[in-house]
Every structure is written in C-alpha cells, then in structure tokens.
C-alpha cells in the first residue's frame, strides 16, 4: 500500500499540459488502483471502495457520479450469470451435463481443456461471453475434482488454473468471430458499416486460431498434474447410472436454461438486451423454486461485484475527465506527421490493450473507434483498417481480473491468483496482437470496407 500511495503522489507532481486538474487526479488514481489490485495489498473489493470515496476528495467526480459504475448493465449481467450458474449447480444439472460430456468427449485433461476453451468460444460468437462462461463454470467445477486435482480452491492445481482461464480466454477469443460477438465489435460495425459476412470471413479464422493457441498455450504455461479421470470411462458410466433418471428440478432447470439461451440468441428479434435477459433467467429460477434468496446470498460472489463496479467507476472517471482522450491523442501525436499504417495499427492496439485492462471496453471503444475511422479516412484507407483491430484489441482483456467479468469470475474461484493470470495473460495478449495484425493484412484486407 505505501508503494501505491507514493506512486499516486509522484503522478500528481508530474506536469500534464493540456489535461485539467480532474483528469490529472484521475490519472494518479489509475496508477494507485493498478498497483493496489496487482499487489493485492487489500482485498480487490476494498480497493474498489477506496476508489469510490476518494474521487470527491481529490476532485475527480462527485460521489453520485463516482458510483455510476454500479449502474452499468454489465454488473447486472454478472449477477444474472452468477445466479443462473448457481441454479444449474444446485439442481444437479451441472453434474449430469459434466458426466454426459465426458462420456462423449473423453476423459483426458487435454481434451477437457479443449472443451473448456472451445465451448465458451463458440457460444461467445453469438451470446455475451460472461453468459457463456457462467454456464460452463459449474461444469468445470465438477470436472476438476473428478480428474483427481487436489486443493484446487487454494490455487494448488495447474489443471484447475488452465481450465478456468481456458474458459475465460476462450470466451473472449470467440467474440472476435462476429460483429455481435462483443460490444466493441458492434461499435466498430456501427461506424464502418461492414457487412456481417465480411466480418465473419476474417473473424472466424482469427477466433479459431486464437482458441487453438489458448488451448495449447495454457497447457504449456500450467503443466497439468492430473492424468485423467480416476477409474477412466468406468467411473463415468457408474456415475451416470447412480444419477438415475432426470429429477423434476433438473428438467425445470434445463427448460429454463434453454429458454434463457433462446432469448439471448434472439435479442435482435425481440428487442430485449442481453443484460435484461440475464435477470429474466435468474428470476425464473427463483419463481420455479430451484433457488431461494439464501442460495444467492451464500453462493454469489458479491465482493467480486463490488470490485468490478469500482473498476467501472474508475473507467468512467478516465472517460469523463478527458484523461483517456488526452492519453490517446498525446500518444498518436508522438508518432509525427506521417506515420506508417502498420505503426498506427500497432500503437492503437497496444493502447487499447493496456487501457482495457482497467476500463470498460465499451467506453474505451466509444473513444477509440471514431478516432480510428477518422484516421483511416484521412489517410485514404479502407474505413475498417484501424477500427477493426482496435475493436479486437479491446477484447484482449487477458491480464487482470478487472479487465473483463469472466477473468474476474475465474479469479473469484480461488483456483488462480493475479500473478498467474498475468503470467498466462501477457503472452496471450502479445500473440493476440501479432495474430490480429497478420490476419488483417492478409485474409481481411479485401473486406475492410
């Protein structure tokens, strides 16, 4: 904590021409928060509470404006996702789905990791990545002890680390595939007017290659200590027979889950958004008696919700004080009057990746995408030249729990700590930037508008 306070004071003493007092203070608060979160000097949620009450004290925003992060729809998507995941677990449906999946796909840890990455990834091309992750998380929690992993909740199992980060990173990579895969993609599509099929032509190959890299990469970063299901296929067969026919609660749960998924997939037709659908699904599990509120009190990680609300509040402060725009414009100005396309692409992606670790990627894309379209038009380039890689970079949120709700939820399992998320996330981000640039300069070039 002393290091974070010293860093805050140092940033406040550095002159920042062109940036107002509130923006200057927001930059100092950003440095303070990142150090506090990265070192876990206090619980992540406690640091978020500091971010809320410190903003009016240092002149960044009034308390009413500081708490606006808790009104962000993504918070309610997380709450709904947590409740649905708990309902799937409590009903016994998660256990049945786990055994059925292992029965069909095999019992090796490598195959389980493949399923973890690709099941969330393929789903995330069409629905919110938080939703895809929340649906798979109870199944992952069932698979880990079945494989013989010991003390996973205390961060002692490499297999557990790979599985939970595989689902999180897979869900982020899967979002690259379509214009509706992520909010930044939608923002880029709105400004560039690229046809849906154009995006898919380069988006799907990019997503699939990235998911393969995540699958193989996590297996190397976290060498798995388990060999496979104890007792092999026979264990699975025995478990399935012990479960017997589906219970009433399982049948109700699968109907409610399929109904909720159908609402997510048809948001374009119904006019509902994915946030309200998450709450509809969550409430239905209470209405039909699968859960009571005590289950939500006990098993939803409310500390994680507070932490994420604080991170969104910090992002809003950077946006509203002009600190984010100042940082981006200054960096582009440093490149001189006639920088190369490749250099601008790399710089915009690196800036997007770094800022998205501590700021809502929706808010960030709202700043960066219009800037990217303007830059491309000024240089006489296809309109998507910078906007598309920026949108994808906004989803390379692999390095910190505050970067994306799925990474926060992965951290919340206790299987993996922040240093390990960084250890896995940094190489994935670097590979993601390089891979995106290669795809955009080859496959995507004719389709960028």
Could you characterize what this model shows?
By secondary structure, this protein is mainly alpha-helical. Helix content is 73%, strand content 0%. The protein contains 23 helices and no strands. It has helices at residues 2-13, 21-39, 44-58, 63-66, 73-91, 93-105, 109-124, 129-146, 158-174, 183-192, 196-221, 232-243, 248-265, 267-270, 274-287, 293-299, 302-320, 323-333, 341-356, 361-378, 384-393, 405-412, 418-441. Helix 10 packs parallel to helix 20. The chain is globular. The model has no long low-confidence stretch (mean pLDDT 84).
Shape: globular
Question: Major beta sheet, specifics?
Answer: none
User: What is the quaternary state of this protein?
Assistant: single chain
Overall radius of gyration: 22 Å
Q: Segments where pLDDT lies below 50 for 5+ residues?
A: none
Q: Structural class of the helix and strand makeup?
A: mainly alpha
Number-wise, the strands total 0
Spell the H/E element sequence: HHHHHHHHHHHHHHHHHHHHHHH
């Amino acid at each position: 904590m002393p290091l974070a306070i010293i860093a805050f004071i140092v940033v406040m003493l550095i002159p920042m021409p062109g940036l107002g007092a509130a923006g200057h203070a927001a930059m100092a608060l950003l440095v303070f928060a990142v150090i506090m979160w990265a070192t876990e000097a206090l619980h992540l949620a406690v640091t978020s509470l500091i971010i809320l009450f410190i903003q009016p004290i240092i002149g960044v925003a009034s308390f009413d404006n500081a708490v606006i992060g808790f009104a962000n729809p993504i918070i309610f998507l997380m709450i709904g996702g947590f409740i649905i995941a708990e309902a799937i677990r409590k009903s016994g449906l998660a256990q049945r789905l786990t055994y059925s999946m292992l029965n069909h796909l095999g019992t090796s840890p490598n195959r389980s990791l493949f399923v973890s990455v690709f099941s969330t990834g393929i789903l995330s091309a069409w629905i919110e990545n938080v939703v895809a992750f929340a649906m798979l998380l109870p199944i992952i929690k069932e698979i880990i002890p079945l494989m013989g992993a010991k003390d996973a909740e205390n961060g002692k199992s490499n297999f557990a680390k790979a599985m939970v980060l595989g689902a999180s990173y897979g869900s982020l990579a899967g979002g690259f595939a379509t214009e509706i895969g992520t909010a930044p993609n939608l923002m880029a599509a709105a400004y560039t007017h690229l046809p849906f099929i154009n995006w898919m032509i380069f988006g799907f190959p990019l997503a699939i290659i990235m998911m393969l890299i995540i699958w193989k990469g996590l297996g190397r970063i976290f060498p798995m200590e388990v060999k496979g299901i104890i007792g092999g296929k026979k264990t699975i067969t025995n478990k399935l027979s012990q479960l017997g026919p589906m219970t009433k609660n399982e049948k109700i749960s699968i109907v409610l889950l399929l109904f909720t998924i159908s609402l997510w997939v048809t948001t374009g037709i119904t006019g509902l958004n994915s946030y309200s659908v998450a709450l509809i699904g969550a409430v239905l599990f209470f209405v039909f008696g699968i859960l009571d509120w005590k289950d939500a009190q006990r098993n939803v990680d409310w500390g994680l919700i507070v932490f994420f609300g604080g991170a969104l509040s910090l992002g809003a402060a950077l946006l509203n004080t002009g600190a984010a725009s100042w940082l981006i414009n200054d960096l582009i100005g440093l490149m001189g009057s006639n920088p190369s396309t490749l250099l601008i692409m790399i710089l915009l992606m690196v800036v997007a990746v770094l800022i998205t670790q501590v700021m809502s990627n929706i808010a960030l894309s709202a700043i960066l995408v219009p800037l990217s379209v303007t830059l491309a038009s000024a240089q006489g380039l296809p309109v998507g030249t910078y906007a598309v890689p920026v949108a994808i970079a906004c989803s390379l949120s692999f390095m910190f729990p505050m970067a994306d709700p799925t990474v926060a939820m992965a951290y919340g399992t206790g299987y993996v700590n922040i240093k390990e998320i960084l250890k896995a996330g940094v190489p994935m981000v670097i590979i993601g930037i390089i891979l995106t640039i290669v795809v955009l300069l080859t496959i995507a070039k004719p389709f960028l508008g």
